[in-house]
Every structure is written in C-alpha cells, then in structure tokens.
Amino acid sequence: MADPTIRFIIFALFSGVCLAGGYLARKRRAAAEQISRPLHLWTVVLVWSPVALVAFWHLPLDRDTFVLMTLQPVQMLIAWGAAVLVARMLKCERGQTAVVILSAALSNQGFTLGAYLCYALLSPSDQALSYAMAFVTMMQVFMVLVFYPIARSYSSDTGTQAEPMGKLIRQNFLDIRAAPLYLALVGIMLSGFSVAIPSWIGEYHVMEILFFIGAIGSYAGIGLRLRLGDSRKYLKLHFALAAIRFALVPLAMMGVLAMLHFTPLGLGTLPRDVVVIEVFTPTAIAAVIVPNLFGLDARLASVLWLWNTIIWGAICLPVILLVF
C-alpha cells in the first residue's frame, strides 16, 4: 500500500476516534451536548481560517483554477434542486427541508476529507491541495452568501425567521463565522502579489497538524450531537441523499467534464483528477456544523452525515483508492 494511502487511512481512523469520543462523552454524561456548538464555532474560526489562508496562498491563479471555481456552483445547484424535490416528495417539515438542502449541496471536499484525499493521493501534493481548495472556494463563498442566510431563515433561534433575505446576507459579513472566507481572500491576495509562503509552514508540517486539530473539533462536535437511534426514522432520506451525492451529482459532473474536454476550457490532468475525487465525496461536516451553529436540527444532520459517509466509505472510497 502506498505511503499517501496509509497517511489518509491514519487520518480517517483518527477522525473516527474523535467522533466516537464525542459520542461516548455525551452518552456517559462526561460532556454536555450543548458543548458541540461553541466547539464547532471555534474550530471554524481558529482552525478552518488559517487552513483557508495557507491553502489559498498556494492557489495557482491560472485558467484551470478559475474553471474549477466555476464548476463548484454548478455542482451545488444540481444537488440543491434535487434536494428540494426530495424534501417535497417525502413531505419534510420546514426545518428538515433546510437540513436536507444543506446535506445535499455541501460536500465534504475541504481539508477534513476531499482536499486531504487529493493531498494524499495526487502528485504534486501541494498543488493538488491548492486545486482542491480552489474547487471548495465557491462553496465557502456560497456558505456566507447563501447557506448562512438559509440557515438563519429556517432557524429556531429567536428573531431570525421574519427578517428579509437581504438583511440576513448583510449580517453574515459581520459574523465571526465568516472568518474562513476573509482569510481565504487574504490568501488569494498574497498569491496574486507573489508573496512567498514562509518555509517553516512546510518544514514543520503545519497544514497536516491543522488537519488533525480540525478533526478533533469537527468530529467530536458531531459525536456530541449524534443519536444513532434516530437513524431508522430517516431511512428514506438516507437513500435519497445517497442517490443525490453518489449518482446524480457525479454523473452530471462527469458529463460537464466531458463537454469541457472538447472546448478551450478543458482541464489539465491534475485538476481533472481533483474534480473526479471531489464530486464523489459524501455530505460535508459543514452540513452538521451549520445547523449546529444556527439552531437547526443538528441531530438529523448528524445521522444523515454519518450514514452518507459510511455509504461513501463502503462503495466510493475503495474505488477511489484503486484508481488513484
């Protein structure tokens, strides 16, 4: 087995331990479920933000990067539309609809899964990570511009439901939860001005250390919210979400890549491989973190995330490791 694959498996096992640790801590009453909300908040602010800064500092400002950034909203809109139809067909409640939309449209393509997988399996690894983060860029932008307002509008938190969407969007730019977006913009500026990245970041494996620290906060926080007994209640949603994430979205995006191949916008080998890996990722941990931060049904989000990730690990991951 290749060394990068071993590294990814170690990271996956570590993430699983963090998830189980959070779950068992709540079950044994060693930690309150409510701790997950501030845990997720400060993971977003203190870990995701510097990761975004460094990843976008590495970002190659070339044609492939901008094509990747354009492909992300295409993927999200396909998943979003399918999620709305599924929610209507299954007669989901208002709060459940928001969670289904977030779970379908937000993919685990960042440093906690997809980008790390690209970093571990593709070469050169730093460039693969940069392309992967470029693909995630628009998801982060949409997170602030679209999905935070959606979460606010559906939220059970006091005083958010009646506010107009324009005001909800404006509020996000003054929200500490938008810190990763701003640090990403700083990273893009540093890259654009050709400012050299400090050598110690690579020498001391800062990015990988942040990956593991981020896994602690992200996955332990999900574990605190997780209720395994809720899984059977949402069986139809599990199958519907898997169909969107692992059939509809990948097939649609493979079609888009095939069409681009016959145009001047066709991607090079490395960015194309990044897209192939990324579009087969499961629902994002952000699909749990956002409901958790904004007072939506984080328990539903956590079981949807868990089983979608398990299905991905059983079906998609072995194929990805075999191919790459």
Explain how this protein is built.
- This protein has 324 residues and is mainly alpha-helical.
- Helices cover 75% and strands 0% of the residues.
- The protein contains 14 helices and no strands.
- The chain has helices at 3-27, 36-57, 63-89, 94-105, 114-121, 125-154, 165-172, 179-192, 199-203, 206-225, 235-261, 269-279, 286-294, 298-323.
- It is globular and about 50 Å long.
- It starts with a helix and ends with a helix.
- The model has no long low-confidence stretch (mean pLDDT 85).
CATH fold type: Na+/H+ antiporter like fold
Number of helices: 14
Count of strand segments:
0
Indicate the CATH class: Mainly Alpha
User: Could you give the distance between the termini?
Assistant: 12 Å
Mean pLDDT: 85
Principal-axes geometry comes out as: globular
Task: Provide the CATH architecture.
Answer: Up-down Bundle
Binned, the helix content reads over 70%
| Structural class assignment | mainly alpha
Overall radius of gyration? 19 Å
Which residues form runs of ≥5 with pLDDT under 50? none
